[in-house]
């Protein structure tokens, strides 16, 4: 009524009232009455906003690529933004120009120029894998951008959601990657088979080495056994030699003993023969009859009877036939 209006800004809107070219009121989330005929209002949104984008660019090797992502920014200096753009609103709260909407376009163009410069330095394969590096690059360069600083804009975050080639290039890359994967699969199968062969070879070598070691051990055992038998045989030979030498020594001693016994017996026999010879020499000068008488004195009855029978058979008085009855012989023999 009478040009008096009321306006109330929310907590994310920086509201300014101009009267006669000067600021009369300003702030975030304020409300007041004003005269529409003499006052001008400007509203600057200061909340963070998200700008999705998708840019069609070229890589360093002239391959088309699409970069898709999202920017998050806010107006940190509303006064600077109002100096560069027109944020005037009417009594219904509508912007009187399109400058507020063009703000987002300026931010996107700045990001697009930076992304284009970055991608033109990379080949297709590098570009498709450059999302982390591109995000760090954008955050750094957007923070240093003079155009955004003049607008009072601060970029809060950058997200790259996809970097894709054209469908034809994608199919070609898929085919190439598929062939590479198949080749790697074949290589893996070959390597696995080769590894199996190598492992089997190693097992065979281990088995052969074990067999050789066993045979060598058996040979060492046989050699040790033969050496032991040889040592035993040598010792047995030495014992036999010692035993033989001992037997030879014993035989020599026995022979020496026998020789000594023979010499002793010979000497004894010579002494006995010499005694008999001397005795016989003494008997040669004695009358045989005397000797006979001397001998008969020492004879037993049997010897005397035998001598009598012998005398009957000798000399001139020998008897041709003599019969002796058993009774006579028994009487002559007496009790014997």
TrEMBL record:
All copies of domain Band, residue ranges: 9-193
Pfam families: Band_7
Locations listed in the record: Membrane
GO cellular component, one term: membrane
Highest taxon in the source lineage: Bacteria
Keyword terms of this UniProt record: Coiled coil
Membrane topology, as annotated: Single-pass membrane protein
Gene3D superfamilies, per database record: Band 7 domain
Coiled coil: 214-241
The name this protein goes by in its record: SPFH domain/Band 7 family protein
Organism encoding this protein: Enterobacillus tribolii
Taxonomic placement: Bacteria, Pseudomonadati, Pseudomonadota, Gammaproteobacteria, Enterobacterales
């Amino acid at each position: 009524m009478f040009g008096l209006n009321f306006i109330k800004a929310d907590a994310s809107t920086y509201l300014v009232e101009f009267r006669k070219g000067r600021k009369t009121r300003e702030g975030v989330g304020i409300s007041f009455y004003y005269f529409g005929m003499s006052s001008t209002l400007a509203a600057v949104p200061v909340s963070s906003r998200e700008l999705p984008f998708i840019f069609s660019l070229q890589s360093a090797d002239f391959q088309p690529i699409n970069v898709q992502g999202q920017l998050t920014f806010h107006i940190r200096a509303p006064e600077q933004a109002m100096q560069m753009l027109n944020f005037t609103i009417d009594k219904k709260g509508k912007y009187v120009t399109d400058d507020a909407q063009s703000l987002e376009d300026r931010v996107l163009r700045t990001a697009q120029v930076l992304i284009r410069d970055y991608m033109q330095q990379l080949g297709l394969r590098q570009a498709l894998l450059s999302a982390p590096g591109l995000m760090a690059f954008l955050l750094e360069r957007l923070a240093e951008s003079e155009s955004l600083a003049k607008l009072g804009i601060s970029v809060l975050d950058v997200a790259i959601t996809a970097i894709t080639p054209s469908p034809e290039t994608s199919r070609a890359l898929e085919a190439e990657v598929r062939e590479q994967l198949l080749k790697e699969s074949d290589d893996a199968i070959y390597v696995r088979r080769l590894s199996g062969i190598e492992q089997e070879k190693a097992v065979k070598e281990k088995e052969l080495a074990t067999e050789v070691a066993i045979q060598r051990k058996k040979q060492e055992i046989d050699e040790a056994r033969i050496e032991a038998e040889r040592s035993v045989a040598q010792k047995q030979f030495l014992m036999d030699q010692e035993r033989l030498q001992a037997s030879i020594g014993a035989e020599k001693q026995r022979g020496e003993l026998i020789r000594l016994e023979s010499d002793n017996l010979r000497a004894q026999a010579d002494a006995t023969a010499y005694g008999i010879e001397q005795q016989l020499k003494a008997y040669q000068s004695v009358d045989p009859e005397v000797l006979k008488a001397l001998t008969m004195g020492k004879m037993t009855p049997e010897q005397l009877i035998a001598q009598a029978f012998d005398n009957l058979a000798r000399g001139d008085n020998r008897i041709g036939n003599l019969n002796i009855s058993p009774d006579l012989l028994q009487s002559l023999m007496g009790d014997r």
